[in-house]
């Protein structure tokens, strides 16, 4: 994959195909509420990208289709991506962030109400035949609040090598920044960040 490849190509080359996964939904206190195994199939058929997520316990499949990545979807040169609203305000806020390395991915879905965080869903995903589901015990994230220059950052630590930062500023409703980092090993860190301006508008994606 070349650095000049268009976003659609970068998205498919890194994230296309089949992914097996284990999703864990955590409450605002960082404790697991529920988990569910999944299978995701991302295909390109006649110019239409389809991402079909199947919940294996029930067999229910939820498809998402588009010809080009949505305007509010940001895709890095490494194929990491984020999706969410294009502006923040006094309304519920949802964001999804995903980083990939080889045959494995890490993904989060952040649901924030008007006033506070509702849940964070954390997913470990892997190609068929590559087991990466993690421990069987219920997941408990380590939460650490940090005060910096008037902003409040909450650091979520997961699996010992995954970090989610959620930044709030008192002058703005909802988060102004959320990032997902995965320290794959001592030499490889995969990261994607979604940031909003003081006016609540989605800012361009920073370079990898």
What key phrases describe this protein's structure?
single chain; mainly beta; 208 residues; nine-stranded antiparallel β-sheet
Nutshell version of this structure?
By secondary structure, this protein is mainly beta. The protein is built from 1 helix and 14 strands, in the order αββββββββββββββ. The longest helix has 9 residues.
Strand order of the main beta sheet, please?
A: 4-3-2-1-9-8-7-6-5
Query: Which regions are unreliable across 5 or more consecutive residues at pLDDT < 50?
Result: none
Mean pLDDT figure: 93
What structural class is derived from the secondary structure elements?
mainly beta
What's the gyration radius in Å? 17 Å
Which strand-content bin applies to the residues? over 45%
Can you tell me the overall shape?
globular
SSE string, helices as H and strands as E:
HEEEEEEEEEEEEEE
Helix content: under 10%
Count of DSSP strands: 14
What is the rounded distance between the termini? 15 Å
Total helical segments: 1
Largest sheet: 9 strands, antiparallel
Layout: helices, strands, pairs:
Blueprint: H1 7-15, E1 17-26, E2 32-45, E3 48-55, E4 60-66, E5 74-75, E6 81-84, E7 93-101, E8 104-112, E9 117-126, E10 142-148, E11 151-158, E12 162-168, E13 175-185, E14 188-195
Antiparallel strand pairs: 1-2, 1-9, 2-3, 3-4, 5-6, 6-7, 7-8, 8-9, 10-11, 11-12, 12-13, 13-14
Structural notes for this entry:
The chain contains 1 helix and 14 strands; from the N terminus they run αββββββββββββββ. The chain has one helix at 7-15, and strands at residues 17-26, 32-45, 48-55, 60-66, 74-75, 81-84, 93-101, 104-112, 117-126, 142-148, 151-158, 162-168, 175-185, 188-195. A hairpin with a 4-residue loop joins β3 (48-55) and β4. The longest helix has 9 residues, at 7-15. It is globular. The two termini are 15 Å apart.
